[in-house]
Design a protein that fits this description.
With 196 residues, the protein is an alpha+beta fold. It contains 9 helices and 7 strands; from the N terminus they run H-H-H-E-E-E-E-H-E-E-H-H-H-H-E-H.
Length: 196
C-alpha cells in the first residue's frame, strides 16, 4: 500500500509583533542611508512607494529576485502588507538595489512565463528554502501554485511616470562618529584587559 504524503499549501508568515524584530527588519533603510546599500543590495532592495491614503513617500526593505531583465518581489509576511496595498493604489515606484536606482511600474504577473519566474524566485531564495523547504520541493503541485497566485507577488517594469524620490544617502557624516566610538570602545576594553 502506498501512502501519499500531502504538503500543505504555503501561507505567508504573520508579521512579527515584537518591536525589536520589527526595527531589525527596517535596518536596511539605515544602512542604505549610511551608503552601505551595495553590500547587501544584491538581495535586499528599498522600495519607495506613495502612501495609499497620505500620498507621502513610504520606504520598505524587501527581498527581490532578478530573472533576466524582470525584477520580482514576493511578500513573505501577511497576505496584504502595507507596501503591497500602496502599490495597488499607486503602482509607480522607485527601487534601489546594488545595480542602481530604477523608476518602475509594479504589476501582478499575468502570463505562465511570468508566473514561472515567481516560482523560480521561491526556488532560488534562501528564505523559503529555510522556512518552508517541503513547499519549495513541491512547487510543481498545481494546488500549491494556485495558492501562491493569491500571494502578494509583484514584477516591475521600467516606467517614465512620476515615481517617489529615492532614499537619499544622507548619513555619510555619521561615519567619523561611528569610527570614533568604535576606537574608543576598543581602547577602553584594551585598557581594562591590561589592568587584569
Amino acid at each position: 500500500m502506498i501512502v501519499e504524503t500531502r504538503v500543505e499549501p504555503p501561507h505567508p508568515i504573520p508579521y512579527p509583533d515584537n518591536p525589536i524584530i520589527r526595527t531589525l527588519y527596517r535596518t536596511p533603510i539605515l544602512l542604505y542611508r549610511l551608503g552601505l546599500g551595495k553590500l547587501f543590495g544584491k538581495y535586499i532592495m528599498i522600495i519607495s512607494t506613495f502612501g495609499r491614503k497620505s500620498g507621502k513617500v513610504r520606504r520598505t526593505p524587501i527581498e527581490y529576485f532578478r530573472n533576466g531583465d524582470v525584477i520580482y518581489a514576493i511578500s513573505g509576511f501577511e497576505r496584504d502588507p502595507d507596501w503591497y496595498q500602496n502599490l495597488k493604489a499607486h503602482p509607480n515606484v522607485t527601487l534601489q538595489m546594488s545595480q542602481g536606482t530604477h523608476t518602475m511600474f509594479a504589476r501582478h504577473p499575468k502570463t505562465a512565463e511570468e508566473w514561472q519566474g515567481a516560482l523560480d524566485y521561491l526556488k532560488e531564495s534562501p528564505v523559503p528554502n529555510l522556512v518552508i523547504p517541503e513547499v519549495v520541493k513541491n512547487l510543481d503541485d498545481p494546488e500549491i501554485q494556485a495558492q501562491i497566485r493569491d500571494w502578494p507577488v509583484v514584477l516591475f517594469e521600467p516606467s517614465e511616470e512620476l515615481c517617489p524620490e529615492p532614499l537619499a544617502v544622507d548619513l555619510y557624516w555619521a561615519w567619523p562618529l561611528i569610527l570614533l566610538a568604535m576606537a574608543l570602545k576598543i581602547t577602553f576594553w584594551w585598557l581594562i584587559s591590561r589592568k587584569k
